[in-house]
Amino acid sequence: MDLPSLWFWIVGFLFLGYFVLDGFDFGVGMSLPFLGRDETSRRQIINTIGPVWDLNETWVIVAGACLFAAFPEWYATLFSGFYLPLLLILLALILRGVSFEYRHQRDDLRWKRHFDLMIVVGSAVPAFLWGVAVANIVRGVPIDQDFEFTGTLLDLLNPYALLGGATTLLLFFTHGVTFVALKTDGPVHAGARRLAVRAGVLTLGVAGVFLAWTLADAWTGGAPAFPAALIAAAAAAVCVLGGIIANARDREGRAFAFGVGAVAGAVGTLWFSLFPNVMPSATDPAFTLTIQNASSTDYTLTIMSWAALIFLPLVLAYQGWTYWVFRTRVTRRHIETAGAAAAH
């Protein structure tokens, strides 16, 4: 495997890590209107991701930095053509982060409800728009001979991309609700488990149509990694179904593992379908950005490879250690005790 191909898969792994980790963050945020029946339950839900949400978001920074360094042409075309959706994602992430920090600064119900709404919006918008963006990357967008995006916002809001957005929205929602069930007790736990079953059924239908559409395009387009894309799509479907069954049987640990597998399978389907391109041109196939014509020099990629070999295991170890430290459930009794102590 040459260095540009290696870095195509490394960038894919980094985005996969981001979608798995920040994906359940988005799902937790979107679950507030469904599971947050009172202030205690809302605090219980938010506290499940309190120690880790900002760490999860760093994956997209690393993925974007590696994309810029390894594939500058891809980065330039992507960020210029997708400027508005990516700006909306950034603003939503800022909105969500501010809300996490400020909602508890005043003991006023209206104050907290406003920030809760911002958490929901700041979670749902990125969950949807990331799917729209990645679906457009796989499908192809108008690109000219200078590798510049020549389309409009309406070109990005095509049926395939909108279905991709609905797929990531539902995948992340189900993934997040399962995480809430894993990390809580009492009424929140019971409600999350039931909601995960219902959301999982809807996700299976929507994601199934989207992945089937993706595979059909990959087959007709002669994607060289089509067999791997087919296996990844099948694995995603099996994992969504497994998550539904596990949640119904109150096996939230297994259900969360299935959720990780479902997101990984969906991202893998898209990445295998894209290979060896990085951004197909809908204008003329000759203008397509590929792994080879969009990559940096071998010298740059060699330095990046050594850096990744040294630092990526350290990042993974630190991430694993963080989740181990905060592995216990967020109980309703703990929230009530903390609230009583604060009141005194």
TrEMBL record:
Q: How does it sit in the membrane?
A: Multi-pass membrane protein
Q: Does the keyword Cell membrane apply?
A: yes
Coiled-coil intervals, chain numbering: none
Subcellular localization: Cell membrane
Q: Which UniProt keywords are given for this protein, alphabetically ordered?
A: Cell membrane, Electron transport, Heme, Iron, Membrane, Metal-binding, Transmembrane, Transmembrane helix, Transport
User: Which chain regions cross the lipid bilayer?
Assistant: 6-32, 53-71, 77-95, 115-138, 158-183, 195-216, 228-248, 255-275, 303-326
Q: Which family does it belong to?
A: Belongs to the cytochrome ubiquinol oxidase subunit 2 family.
Q: Which protein, by its recorded name, is this?
A: Cytochrome d ubiquinol oxidase subunit II
